[in-house]
Design brief:
It comes from Allokutzneria albata. The protein has about 270 residues and is α+β, with helices and mostly antiparallel strands. The protein is built from 7 helices and 15 strands. It has an 8-stranded mixed β-sheet with strand order 4-3-5-6-7-8-9-10. Strands 12-11-13-15-14 form a 5-stranded mixed β-sheet, with helices on one face.
Length: about 270
Amino acid sequence: MEAVNPDFEPLRTTAVTIGTEAAELVQRLRGGPGGFHGEVDTKSTETDVVTAADKASERLIRSRLAQLRPGEAILGEEGGADPGAGRLLWVVDPIDGTVNYLYGLPWYAVSIAAQLDGVSVAAAVVEPASGRVWSAVRGGGATLDGTPLRASATTRLELSLVGTGYAYAVERRARQADVSAALARHTRDLRRTGSAALDLCAVAAGWLDAYYEHGLGHWDWAGGSLIAEEAGALVRLPDGTEDGLGGDITLAAAPGIAVDLAEALRAAGAAKI
């Protein structure tokens, strides 16, 4: 494991502190069980939703980062990018899993990551419904509520539980479903939970043996991918790498199945999504 940069630990502390505050706001705005009753808008399609709570959470995060880390750049899902003077970039997803949040399914999270030159160096993913806090610092490991995490030790893809997700656009979702159907023949089972950040954390905990998804936004993977990587998972980010998987696929897997999973995805036509 690479040495921990002492400058990174305060970044994790900041991410945890602000992520926890935002999660408390998100849960308070949600209210009790049942559907969300606040303002709901749509983005790319009628099924791609954003709530008033998403916007309020991002406003809080931006305000607190301006107080605690003044002058640093911020990239948020709802508010776009605020340029900063330095190399550090805060990548913010105010609610990852907004559809789950809308329906009351408690698998959604606030994700905050600090990146240097495009590489995540500290992160926190906080679950409003449960209060669980996932975090990591580059070179320093990953934890869930302070307990160290370790990815699965499985070596057999056919006995592995694999998570995935789908696009909001119907035609692309149909192609993704075809890939999933092909992959299902080579795994124990597939899961689709609706939060990329938490699926990546689940790989870190060994709750999933692997996870892959096409078309994630920067904010979707910035925090969870570091947590998975620091727990020992092999992580492939959507950087256009010419490896036969296509340019926009994110993948995190137990080291013992990573090669086999990539090959199964290539054979299933993942590059054509």
